[in-house]
Specification:
The protein is α+β, with helices and mostly antiparallel strands. 23% of the residues lie in helices and 37% in strands. A hairpin with a 3-residue loop joins strand 15 and strand 16.
Amino acid sequence: MRVTNATIRAVNGLTARWAETVSGATVFSAAGVWPLLGLLADGAGGAARAELTEAVGLPAEESAARARELLGALADMRGLESALGVWTLRTLELREAWEAGLPAGTHGVLTGVEDTDRESLDAWAAKRTGGRIRRMPVALTDRTEMVLAGALTLRTDWFRPFSESPLCPESGPWRDRVLEGLWRTSALLDRAGVADTPHGALTEVKVLGTTGLDVHLLLGEERMSPGQVLGEGVRVLAGERPVVPGPGLPYGEAGPGLRVERERCAAPRPPSLEVTTVPFTLSAEHDLLCRHELFGLTTARDDRYGHFPGISGRPLCVGSARQAATATFGALGFRAAAVTAVAAAAGSAPSRLRHVTTSVGATFDRPFGFLAVHRRTRLVLAAGWVDDPEPCREDEASH
């Protein structure tokens, strides 16, 4: 199933807005939240419908179809697995039209017994993420009548693996630390580029995966905030910021962490791109109601009224909305997972150097961001910020 450009723009738009709120180490997936918001918008009424429509970025009457389109497209992408689940109390009757729009086999039952329901929901989250997320991020209470959840997992291996070696930054916040480091060289200078943004220069390096999933590493000027780096990274992806690719970069300090040099060599040698970075594993849980304006859930929280007449004749409000996400970037590849749930409540010199070549060195040795991107559609599947890398293991540092 193909996903429309309008849907991609809407999901990436939510990613950019969420990214702008980031202030420290984290990982999140707007692609994991967006389908749930779309289904809620379809069944919402009044002010809640208007707020959800704005958050989704598409008309409410189209949102459910676009949510199904995205879920279908995610299921068809190599290296991705996605799932949707809806659980309701037996006494909650869903509107036929809204229930008919759900994928087959997604409707389960809540018993109303918290321990029993918690066990069932946690098992679903663990199964759908291959054990990367073992607990459904939802608050169950005696007033919970419905749980709407989505799971998303990403897996890719690098075409060209990294080598592992200790990294010792000479400046910046990681200075004087001995870190786990990753290094590799390729002849593809266009994998790196420098963007001109309103907040400063932004270096982007693309690490390509074998399943069509890539990770874009983002390093901004030191004065740029995490939110500015990630938000501008999404805009670069959308073609909204001018970018000078690696082959066109000037010699010298061409961008944050990026240096272009003219080197002499004994024999003809192609240009090279040397990337140095750190491996990382991130985990985060997000309470979406703490940013209710961003997700269009301001009115929907009000438990004095029902806000989803298109879902059920019973008055429903949003009692809980959370996401648990994890991501691992290593020498061989990238893995990530996210579960989102909404609960409705009531990098030897020769002696004679006659030739010249160009080398580009990209070094990510201070806090940086990343985007996990589906290469063909340019849909952002996960994003995050790395600010506390792993120290080098003693056995590695001694070699």
